[in-house]
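Weekly puzzle thread! Below is a chain. First person to post its structure in token form gets bragging rights.
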Amino acid sequence: MSFATATYGFVVASVVVLGLAASAVFWSRSEAVINEALDLAVRQRTEAAGESFARLLHTDWTDLAFLARAAGGAEDGDIGDLLEGVRGDGDRISWVGYADVDGIVLDASDDLLVGADVSQRPWFRNGLRSGFAGDVHDAVLLAQKLRPEGGDPLRFIDLALPVRNADGEVQGVVGMHIDAGWAERTLTETGRMLGIDLYLINAAGEVVMTSGNAAPGVGELSLLSAARSGTETGGRETWPDGREYFTTLVPQVSYEDLPSFGWRLAGRIDAATFRPGLNTLVGSASVAIAVALVALALLSILFVRIFVRPFTGLADAARKMAEGEDTYPPETGATREAATLSAALSRLQARRSGPSGR
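Winning reply:
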């Protein structure tokens, strides 16, 4: 093996060893970095979505608290105009009403259910004691009045507050039915803006709203099992569609003094979300490595020609001198060692060619 071949072999071996080591480190760290980034992203986005969703419901809670104060100070409980104002166009709030302590509706938006007995409804019974937030449920009394033509069943979210007079005595309950369809559309829009699938889960572990295409069934995910106990969890999960997602669970969806609905919010991001970016990075790194290898090859060739080839010429000259040929080694100053060897061979040849050497 020549000195030049050994030099090229050393460079190639070094590049291979360094390349394999760098690749192993890059792929192991890139996977870890992506996992950490996805875990952090899904956690932060789910928390933000939960707070944003609860904040919107808190505005309705604030309006209901205003109604409760107004009803407590109004003569004969006449707050009809206020009820209509709070309900608005009905796209968001389907019904607002005021019932006395016996559960008889005294006033309501659009006069719906006025005179009806709501004493057995959960919003009324819980609202007599304190502020109440009720989970998603199908409409019971209002179904025929709001949608007499039938169709998909109406679902509501309930808010209720006791009405107290100046002496602090309970004299009734104000209740609000928020359209669950509006709430789910809001959740969908929030998920789309944040680039995340969202699943609102009740205390029983059932998905009551989702921004995704389909909700997983109860018991299909360990995530839903954790929802029953209200524990916070997260990590990589294989969902019913067979794909892996980074999933997190926020154990409570609330804001300021808004009562708890008993909800948990799950968020997920596809584990392949950052893969296109990683592929782009790998492509850019590959181009950079290719350019670096070309530059290294050119530098290696230049190094061999300047520093290695002179030793090849000196070796040829030494061989010819040993065979008795009258030749002088090439003069070179590429390196100190080459210059020293060239001078030594020249002196040896001069002695052999001199009178005493003949």
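Puzzle host: Confirmed. Bonus trivia for everyone else. Residues 3-73 form the longest helix (71 residues).
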